[in-house]
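Preliminary data (for renewal application), zinc ion complex.
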Amino acid sequence: MKAAFVTEPYKVAIRDIQDPVVGPGEVLIRVKATGICGSDLHLYKGVHAFRKLPAILGHEVAGEVAEVGSGVTRLKPGQPVTVLPQISCGQCTACSKGYFNICPRKTVPGTPAWQGTFAEYFIAREEAVYPLPAGVDYVAGSLAEPLAVAVHAARRAELKGRERVAVLGSGTIGLLVLALARHYGVKEIIATDAYDYNLGVARKMGATATINALREDVAAKVNEITAGEGVEAVIVAASAPGIIDQASTIAARRGTIALVAMISQAIPVMTYTFVYKELELKGSQTYTAADFEAALKLLAAGAVPVGEVVTKTVGFEDTARALEILDKRLEEAVKIVVTL
Ligand SMILES: [Zn+2]
Ligand SMILES: [Zn+2]
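Predicted structure:
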C-alpha cells in the first residue's frame, strides 16, 4: 500500500510499504479522510518532540472497516469508523486514576510502535475504534480527534456555565473551543488571532468579538469589552512568547487559564498576576475516551460547523502541497483534510 512519509525536514514522499496484516483484537481500516494537524507540521519541519524522521504523517482519521481480526465483536467490514489515536498502558499511576491522556507510556501513531494515518490502510485496536454516528461523514469523522482536544480543554477551563471567555488563537483547536463555548451558551466569546481570515471564521462560528493580536492591544480591548472585569476563562491555543502574560492580564479575578498550545521553549511569565488575582493555570493534554465520545456526540448533533473549520480537502497525492500551503501560508486555510 501507499503511505505518505516525511523523509527529511520539508520533504514528503509517497512510498510503497508492506500491506498491514490484521492481528487478533485489531481492526484494519481503509482510510477515507485524514486531517493535517499542527503536530504534523512539527513533523514536517523535523522538530516534533518525539516523532522521529522518517515517519508516516497523521493521527486524525476516518475510514471504513476493511477487515477485523479474531476476537473482534463490536465492528464489522464496511462500517464507517474513526479512531481514538492513543493507547494508554492501563497500569501506571495516571491510568489507575483514569487520566489515560497523561499516561507516560501511551502509544500514538507516527511512531515505531504504531503507523501514522497517511496511508491507504491503518490498523487500530478494537477498543480505539469508534463507529461514526449517522450523518457524520468521513471528513467530519476525521475532526473527532481535534474536537476531543477542544472538549478536554473546555473541561479543564470549566467553560460550561461561564459568562465571558477568551480564546487566544483561532486555529483549528481555538475555533473548535469557540464552537463549544457557543454550544454551552457562553454569552461573551472573545477570539484573537494574528490573521484576519481566521478572525472572520471565528465571527462566523459565533465569536462575539475578535481582536487581531498583531495590530491591536488585546488587554485594552478585552478590558473595554468586559467593562474592566476581564474574562472568567481563557483558553490558550496560540504560542506567541508573551501569551501567558496576555492570558493572565485579561483573566478576571479567580479566573482559569487552560493551556492547550504546546510551547516547547521557556517563556517568561509574570507570576505576580497569578497571586494578585488568584488565577489558575492548567495544562490540557489530548483527551480521554469520555472526551472523544463527547466529541462524536457533538458532531452528530451538528454542534460544530465542520465546513467552516475544514477549509480545504485535497487528494492523497497532494499531501506535500497541502503541508507547504499550511507551513508557508500560501493560501488562507484553517484545517486541510486529505481524502482517499
Ligand atoms: Zn491532531
Ligand atoms: Zn499508563
